[in-house]
Amino acid sequence: MPEKLSSWDAHVGTPRFEDYxxxxxxxxxxxxxxxxxxxxxxxxxxxxQHSWAAHNAWGQAWAAIGxxxxxxxxxxxxxxxxxxxxxxxxxxxxxxxxxxxxSQLKMYHDMTKLLENLxxxxxxxxxxxxxxxxxxxxxxxxxxxxLCVEDADFFDPHFLAGGVPGDxxxxxxxxxxxxxxxxxxxYTGAPINGPAALELGLVNEVLPRQDLxxxxxxxxxxxxxxxxxxxxxxxxxxxxxxxxxxxxxxxxHAAHQLWGMTMGEAGxxxxxxxxxxxxxxxxxTPPEDDDHDHGEA
Length: 297
Description:
Blueprint: H1 17-23, E1 28-33, E2 36-41, H2 52-67, E3 73-77, H3 88-91, H4 101-120, E4 126-130, H5 138-141, E5 145-148, H6 169-177, H7 179-188, H8 194-200, E6 205-206, H9 209-224, H10 228-262, H11 268-274, H12 276-280
Parallel strand pairs: 2-3, 3-4, 4-5, 5-6
Antiparallel strand pairs: 1-2
């Protein structure tokens, strides 16, 4: 619903949905109804495939969405039966150590803004609907409410590939499931599917795929029945721990990951290629004998 501003109030140059929805259409399909904006990641209309251009687009898109006063609730989801995928061999043509300083700086900017702008620039309730397995679950985890399907896969691949888990998933694991459990999953890369994520406290509901988006819209519609003030102030409370976590720790995590990448360790790309099924195929089932109990934080 439109804002009810007094005659002396005004917006100067706020983004228009018609403009930014076209700007990011290659990566994000946006629809809006009655103040609820749905943002669906995609590649050529199918499941999202990671690219450096998309990596750059995310943070810019969150800023534009957050600056549009006509957005009241955000639903973030993916396309088809995957949340996020990609082929590491198509992304890493050149070792990071050989990138120019400006390209390395852009990587730092992109990897931090994709989470920082979601948390700091969006002042409306956020709902993530994770529609399948895939990496980059950190910004879905940082949403106010997170829904997922059973074959979701909350995993951090960095350490298994010989890198440092610094671009956000490790941090969101620490803040949701506790430092001991987070350490286990950061080191082992063990799968966390939907039921395990619900048990551990990463998500709020696990649903059949056909019910996922309708449930997100149902929750968003319930939110819209309350006042704009109640929505935004409740979101301010819900998001404050994430703001504190990013200010305290995210730069530290990201810098350590990029520092490790500048070392140019041999074999990292080969390890990523060995893990290709985790980026492209069905998530394996977690082991049943440990009940995911690796200690409370």
